[in-house]
Amino acid sequence: MIRTEELQLNMGPQHPSTHGVLRIVLRLDGEVIVEAIPHIGYLHRGIEKIAENRTYTQVIPLTDRLDYVSSMMNNFAYVLAVEELMGIEVPERASFIRIIMAELQRIASHLIAFGTGGLDAGAMTVFLYCFRERERILELFEMVCGARLTYNYFRFGGVSQDFPKEFAESARNFIKYMRPKLDEYEDLLLNNYIFQKRTKGVGVLKKKDALSYGASGPVLRGSGIKRDIRKEKPYSLYDRFDFEIPVGKNGDTWDRTWVRLEEMRQSLNIVEQALDGLPSGKVKAWGVPRMIKPPPGEVYRPIESTRGELGFYIVSDGSARPYRMKVRSPAFSNLSLIPVVIKGHQIADVVVILGSLDPVFGEVDR
Amino acid sequence: MKNPQFIKEIKKKFGKVILDFKSYNDEIILTIDKTSLLPLAKELKKIGFEYFSFVTAVDYQERIILVYRLSSFKDKVNLILKAILPLSDLKIDSVSSIWGGANWHEREVFDLFGVVFDHHPDLRRILLPENWSGHPLRKDYRDEDVVKRKEYF
Question: What distance in Å separates the CA atoms of residue A364 and residue B107, rounded to the nearest whole number?
Answer without folding.
Answer: 13
